[in-house]
C-alpha cells in the first residue's frame, strides 16, 4: 500500500471512535498537521488537543470537508442526515474518499446526500479500536476506486484488523458479531469474576484471573492456526475439570442460546437501519 501519511484526513465529529482512529494514525506515523477535526463540544475539543496540539480543531464542518482528501463521518447516526445533507451541498475536493463509521447508515443514504458518483466506504468498527485492537468490517460503494479502498484500509488498519465485504447486507451481521461482540466477552469475564469471588478470591484477584485468561485465550486463538474446536480440545481432558464445566454449558444449550442472541442482534441492526429511513 502507498504511503498515505501526508494525506489530509478530516473528521466530522471528534468522539471516542474518532479519537481512537486519530491515535492509531499518529502511532502509525501519520503527520498530525495533516489531521483536522470538526467538533462543536469543548470537552471533546480539549480531549483531541490532548492527543496532539498539532491537530486542527474547529466547529466548522464545511471548512474541514473542503480541505480533506479523506473525510471521516464520525457523528451519531441520529444526526447524520442533517450533517450529511449540509456537507453534500458544500465544496469538497474531487476524488475525496468518504468513510462513514456511523452504525446503520447505508451506502444508498450516503450516496443520496453526497451524490451517486461519490467515493463512499461504510465501516463497522468496534470498541477495542480504542487500544488499536479493533475489528472493522468495510463495504465500498460502487464508485470507490482502488485508491479509495486503500485510503479506507489505511485509516482503519490504524485501529486493528479489517475485513472487506462485497454484500452490504452482511454489515448487520458484522454489527452482531464484532460490533456488539466485545460485550459478550465482557459478560463471560464478568461471570468468571463473580464466581471467583464466590469461591473466596478478592475482587482484584478475581478480575485478574478472569481478564488475563480471556486475553491469553484470545491471543492463542489469533496466533495459532489450529481450529477453535481443536484449541478447546487441547484444554479439555476427558473426565477432567474442563470437561465437567463444558458438559454443563452444552447441556444448557449454550450454542443455541448464543446463536439466538446473535440473530437477535443482527435483526435489531436491520430494524434500526430501517427506522433511520435507509430502506
Biggest sheet: strands, sense, closure? 8 strands, mixed
Q: What would you report as the Rg, rounded to the nearest angstrom?
A: 21 Å
- Helix content range of the residues, please? 40-55%
Stretches where pLDDT falls below 50 for ≥5 residues?
A: none
- What's the total helix number? 12
Overall mean confidence score, pLDDT: 94
Strand order of the largest sheet: 3-2-1-4-5-6-7-8
Distance between the termini: 35 Å
What is the compact description of this entry?
The chain has 279 residues and is α/β, with parallel strands linked by helices. The protein is built from twelve helices and eight strands.
Explain this structure to me?
By secondary structure, the protein is of the alpha/beta class. It has helices at 16-27, 42-51, 61-67, 80-88, 107-114, 146-157, 170-179, 181-199, 203-223, 228-235, 241-251, 254-275; strands at 9-12, 35-38, 56-58, 70-73, 97-100, 119-124, 134-140, 160-164. The protein has an eight-stranded mixed sheet, sandwiched between helices. α4 (80-88) packs parallel to α5 (107-114), α7 (170-179) packs across α12 (254-275) and α8 (181-199) packs across α9. The model has no long low-confidence stretch (mean pLDDT 94).
